[in-house]
Every structure is written in C-alpha cells, then in structure tokens.
Design brief:
By secondary structure, the protein is mainly alpha-helical. It has one domain. It is built from 18 helices and two strands. It has a two-stranded antiparallel ribbon. Helix 5 packs antiparallel against helix 15. The longest helix is centred in the first third of the chain and has 29 residues. It is globular. GO terms for molecular function: xanthine transmembrane transporter activity.
C-alpha cells in the first residue's frame, strides 16, 4: 500500500507528463481567438479543473461509466482547428453548444462502437500501440529543441538541457530502487529545471501575475448556441478521438499486463462522452485518453489506479488555484522534451513487444504492420501533405494515430477475408497428399 506522500509524488509525476499538452490547447485556442488575459487565465484554469474531473470519472468507474484503467484524460488536439473555425465564423457559445451535443453522441454511440472491436486482433493492436509511440516522438524532439516556433529553437543550451534531463532519468532508473526509481521522471524534470534556472532560463513572472483562486463557472462565455454544421463537425472530431482512445486503452492494458475487455472500452468511451459534455458546460474542451502517460506507466511499472486518482485530484486543485498551476509552467520545453524521449519511446517499445507475439512470417500480418506503421508515422511527421483535401478527410488523415489505425483495420479486414477465401477455394487435388 502506497503512503499518501508517495501517492502524491507519483500522481504529480503523471500531471507533469501531460501538463504541457493540457495547457497548450487553451493557449493556442485563446491566442487564435484574441481572448483577453483574464479570459485566457479562465480557459487554462477551467481546462485543468475539467481534466481532473474527467480523469476521476474515468478511474472510479460505475456500471456504465469509467474503464477503471489507469488512464488520464486531457483535451484533444484534434479539436483545436474546428473550435477556432466555429468560434471565428460564429462565436464561442456555438462551439460549446456543439461540444455538449457531441458529448451526448459519444455516450450513445459507445456501445455500437464497442461491437467493432473484433476488428482489433493482436496484429492491429500491436501496430496501433507502436504508431502511438512513434507519432509522439516528433513532439518530443520539438520540445527538445525548445518548442516549435520558439526564438531559441535548436540552440545548444536546449539540447544540453534535454540531455541532462534524459541522463538523470536513466541514471535514477539504473542506480535507484523502489520508490525513487518509480519517480525517476519527476526527479529528471526537477534536476533539469534546476540546471535551467542556473542558466537563466527559468522565469517566475507568470507565477507572480497569476491569481490565487479561480472557480470554473458554467457557461462562462454565454449560454450555448447550436448550429447543425458545428455539431456535425464536433461529432467527427470525437469519432476520431474514440479511435485514438481505443489505442490508448489497449496500450495501457499492455503496460499493466491486463487484457482490456470490450465492456471496459465502452464504459471508458461513455465516460469520455460525459467529460466532453462537462467540457462544454464549463467552457473548456473535448477530452480524450492521453497517450503521453502510457509511457510513464511502462517506465515506472506502477500500475495502481490510486496514483491516477491522485493525479486527477491534483489537476482539480491546480484548476482552482491558478498560482500553483502557473508554478508548473516554469519548466522549460527542453526539459520536458528530455523526459518525453524515454516516455514516448517506451510506448513504441510496448507496441513492438505486442507485435513480437504475432507471426510476421505470415505475409498478411507483415503487410498490416508495415503499411499501418508507415502511414501513421508519415502522417504524424508530414501532416501538411493532406492540406489540399476536404476538411473532413484532412481531420482524419492528419492524425497519425487515426490514419495508421484505419489502415491497420482495413488491411486486416481485406487481407484476412482474401486469405479465408483462398483457403476455402482450395480443391482436394490441390492439397498435397501423403504417399
């Protein structure tokens, strides 16, 4: 049984692993819509608060809601473009009305989606988990260099910070035991931030400017308004997220050595639908299972749901106390990037471990794995290749996890059916006879 202090440290480590991704979405959306500093502060606080509530809903579990897997929920990047587009052409109230109704759609559609899980055999599961890890690596490398678009992108000091953070994590994993080893990523982040502070790269101005208390308010940006086109757009966004979350659930199952049942995925998706509705009500964002934290589970081997429960509680508190939340933002991107390398690499390695159970000498299996991984990684590295396609296709294909998953599922259906027909069509004369 973990003590309260250990639970807090392990939970906080998970929060740090997903924090950059969690606050990036409100910052991008708020910046694009030219929100005031007060509105931006609310958006970040409301997002963290709802992230925590969504995670608690997922981890607690009831008869119909919650996967009861150690999964953290965060806002989906797939929704960034559509929210900006809807709010720019109408207003934020219309965007949030669409988010609420799309959440209801996810709750109702989850059981039907669950019936499609038979199209996820081991070769598809292994390919999808591998794609999740590989598609996140470019994100890690962007952070290693200082963050996409930063003025010091690629500066040697950023690369040095990432290297220091990575080396500390590796050394702690190699030399420490027990609890210290399980918080190696947190230790690495702390050490990297201390080095960055000594180099003059840590600034506390955002902490001084942040308010002490902020309470999420329903319909902060006005009562929800509804547009059929906006609702359809957000439903498509959340269908994409459902596919992505399925891959995360399967990856977590592999990380904790547990077979993930159809009911768990359906309940998990229902819980995500409820979280999306809350995101619309509190004027936050649609939520999905965060793949960033899968690697941390694989690395630390800490499988307790209580740790994720603690992480959810910490996010709720950070959402209510913006000054504490701002304190966590002082960690430089390069430090986060150094930690991401080992975490995201661990996810890819887990996928490869699943694929090792598949007979890749069988041509159909080899083609499914090879093509889906290539398509998924290609989409993640070069998403702009789909810029000339219609918005619906662009939304699907620019997400490496989704494009790779669809490729694996379709190839599995086609190649398995072809193989079955080939076996069925063999005549007696074609079967080698014993002499």
């Amino acid at each position: 049984m973990l003590s309260k202090q250990k639970l807090f440290a392990l939970g906080f480590q998970h929060v740090m692993a997903m924090y950059a991704g969690a606050i990036a979405v409100p910052l991008i959306v708020g910046g694009a819509l030219h929100l005031t500093p007060a509105q931006m502060a609310y958006l970040v606080a409301a997002d963290l608060f709802t992230c925590g509530i969504a995670t608690l809903l997922q981890i607690m579990g009831t008869r119909f809601f919650g996967s009861r897997l150690p999964v953290i929920l965060g806002c989906t990047f797939t929704a960034v473009g559509p929210i900006i587009a809807i709010a720019s052409t109408s207003n934020l109230a219309t965007a949030y009305g669409a988010i609420i109704l799309s959440g209801i759609f996810v709750v109702l559609a989850a059981p039907l989606y669950g019936k499609l899980l038979r199209f996820f055999p081991t070769v598809v599961t292994g390919s999808v988990v591998t794609i999740i890890g590989l598609s996140l690596i470019p994100v890690a490398m962007n952070n290693v260099a200082g963050g996409q678009g930063s003025a010091d992108f690629g500066q040697p000091r950023n690369l040095l910070l990432a290297l220091v953070t990575l080396l500390v994590i590796l050394l702690v994993n190699r030399l420490a035991k027990g609890f210290l080893r399980s918080i190696s990523v947190l230790i690495g982040l702390f050490a990297g931030t201390v080095v960055a502070y000594a180099m003059g790269m840590v600034h506390f101005a955002p902490v001084a400017q942040a308010s002490w208390v902020s309470v999420a308010q329903p319909f902060y940006f006005g009562k929800p308004e509804f547009s059929i086109m906006a609702v359809c757009t957000m439903i498509i966004v959340n269908i994409v997220s459902m596919v992505e979350s399925t891959g995360v659930y399967l990856a977590v199952g592999k990380a904790i050595d547990q077979k993930v049942e159809q009911k768990q995925i359906v309940n998990g998706l229902r819980s995500e639908g409820l979280a999306i509705m809350l995101g619309g009500i509190f004027n936050a964002f649609p939520y999905t299972a965060f793949s960033q934290n899968v690697g941390l589970i694989s690395l630390t081997r800490v499988k307790s749901r209580n740790v994720i429960f603690a992480a959810g509680g910490i996010m709720v508190v950070l959402g209510l106390l913006p000054k504490l939340a701002a304190l966590t933002t002082v960690i430089p991107n390069a430090v986060l990037g150094g930690a991401m390398i080992v975490m995201f690499g661990s996810v890819a390695a887990s996928g490869m471990s699943i694929l090792s159970e598949v007979d890749l000498r069988k041509e159909s299996n080899l083609l499914i794995a090879a093509c889906s991984i290539a398509v998924g990684l290609g989409s993640a590295v070069l998403p702009q290749m789909f810029d000339q396609l219609p918005s619906f296709a662009k939304m699907l294909l620019q997400n490496g996890i989704v494009s790779g998953s669809i490729t694996a599922i379709v190839l599995n259906i086609v190649l398995t059916k072809k193989q079955a027909e080939s076996v069925k069509g063999v005549t007696v004369s074609e079967v080698p006879q014993k002499v």
